[in-house]
Amino acid sequence: MAWDTEGTRQRLLDAGARQFAEHGFAGTRMDAIGRDAGVNKERVYKYFGDKQGFFDAVLSRELGTLLDGLEGSLADPDAAGRFTGDLFDRCRRQPTLPRLLAWESLEVGHAVALDRRQSMCAAQVTRLESAVSGLDHEAAQHLLLTAITVVVGAWTLGGIAESVLGTSDPAARRDQVVQQMRALARPDS
């Protein structure tokens, strides 16, 4: 029977996304990843080198799709709000995404797959500039950063929402985030 190298890699990446999202870089153990994937942990080292290389591969795969498919959100003046709402919904469906972004910032100290992510973000910035009248390039960059930061914070800082709002109702939070991003996108505000 032939070894399914690609299947093994995918199971490891899936397990890595779950484990790193739950425990962060420092708290994740390679033997836990192996158990989660149903694979000997030595395969991680064979395919990815070391823990850092594996973490980078997991983040590159998971975060590489963070903004994919959200282009339609940036088609009109309500673009910033719609984009933020769509990103919020994506993070609701894929809760590992905001957690991995948070762990990357807290523990890694550098952006993983930077070239790929920068080109993805640059495309979104260009779409924002086109969709929102009067928004220059730098303002569009900051608006995109604000949208991503607000959404990631909504999913990773639930204790703060509970402290400030007395609840962590995702539907209500989404509505407020969308309204506030629409307001921020008005250059004359």
From TrEMBL:
Pfam families: TetR_C_21 (PF17926), TetR_N (PF00440). Residues 6-66 form the HTH tetR-type domain. SUPFAM superfamilies: Homeodomain-like (SSF46689). GO terms for molecular function: DNA binding. The keyword DNA-binding applies. GO terms for biological process: regulation of DNA-templated transcription. Keywords: DNA-binding. InterPro entries: Homeodomain-like_sf, HTH-type_TetR-like_transc_reg, HTH_TetR, Sco4008_C. Residues 29-48 bind DNA. It comes from the Bacteria. Gene3D superfamilies: Tetracycline Repressor, domain 2. This is Putative TetR family transcriptional regulator. It comes from Gordonia soli NBRC 108243.
